[in-house]
Each structure stands twice: as C-alpha cells, then as structure tokens.
Amino acid sequence: MRKNKQFYLIGILIIAIIITLVGLLELSAIKDIFFWGQIQRLILAIVAGMLFYLLPFKNLKLLSYVFHVLILILLVVVLFSSHEDVKRWIPIGSFNIQPSEFAKLSLILVISRIYAEREKIKNSQVLKALLVTMLTAALVLIEPDLATSVTYFFIFFAITYGVGAPREILIPLILV
C-alpha cells in the first residue's frame, strides 16, 4: 500500500512540474521579467513545500491555530495598507504578498484540526469551524474580495462533508 501511495504522489509531482514548466515557457515568450519573477516564486514555493513536508504532523497540528491567527492579523493589516489602490496586497521588499491566499491553507489546517479533536463530529465542532470560516471570510470581504470569501465557504463545506458530518447538520447549512 505504501509503494502505491508513493507512486501516486510522485505521479502528481511530475504532473505539477510539467504544468509549471509549460507555464514558464509561455511566460518566457511574453516578457522576460515575468519569467524570472515566476522562477523566484517557484523556488520559494519549493522551499516552503519542503519545510511543510519535513515538519512532523504533530507540530503542524499544534501550529495550525497559531498560523491562522497570524494570517488573521495579516488580513487586518491588509485593510490599512494598499498597493496601487488595492487592499489585498502587503508589499515586502520586492515581493507583494496576498494574505487571503495563505488564509486558504491556514483555514484548511484549522478546520481539519477542529474536526480531529473528536472521532464523531458534534454540532459544537461544526459551529466552531463555521465561526472561524465566517471570521476569515468577513475580513476578506471587507477588502473587498467576494470570490475568495466564497471560496472559504466551499473549503468549509468540503471538509465538513469529507469528515462525514451528518446530513442533519449539512443540509440546513447549505440552505442558509
């Protein structure tokens, strides 16, 4: 079973690398500056991915709340800074970061952590996950970025459904 999982993960990695290389080739045909900017981001993404891979799962579980609180702070900071009249980016040196994108990852980690606390999903866990999602979405909606806010709710529903939350909980949430 482990070999199948490794083969599957290697296959996904190869596909991701091919897609990235095709994208880089397309960018290099347009403008050189876009190409080198994407190379920098690719290197940063690989380093970040390796750090997450090397981080033991227990530590990731413990750090999920801290990571999300830091992202929420950045989402508040973004409201008071603007880059070219857009309140979604924080300039850091030659880079601009968009905390709402990191919030997707941190929201996945936090919601997963909330549901991992008990074996059987309880209403209180769903409510806690929903409140965290609503807070994150509200901060992004103020920017304004409706599409990303809606994405957070899709993340919430996908994870809530994936962990096997009862229909009695899911259906009313979807209807609202």
From TrEMBL:
GO cellular component terms attached to this protein's record: cell division site; plasma membrane
Transmembrane segments: 7-27, 33-55, 62-83, 95-114, 126-142, 154-175
An annotated GO BP: cell division
Transmembrane is among the record's keywords: yes
InterPro entries: FtsW/RodA
GO MF, any single term: lipid-linked peptidoglycan transporter activity
Transmembrane as UniProt keyword: yes
Protein name stated in the entry: Rod shape-determining protein RodA
Topology with respect to the bilayer: Multi-pass membrane protein
Cellular compartment(s): Membrane
PANTHER family the record matches: CELL CYCLE PROTEIN
Key words of the record: Cell shape, Membrane, Transmembrane, Transmembrane helix
A Pfam family per the record: FTSW_RODA_SPOVE
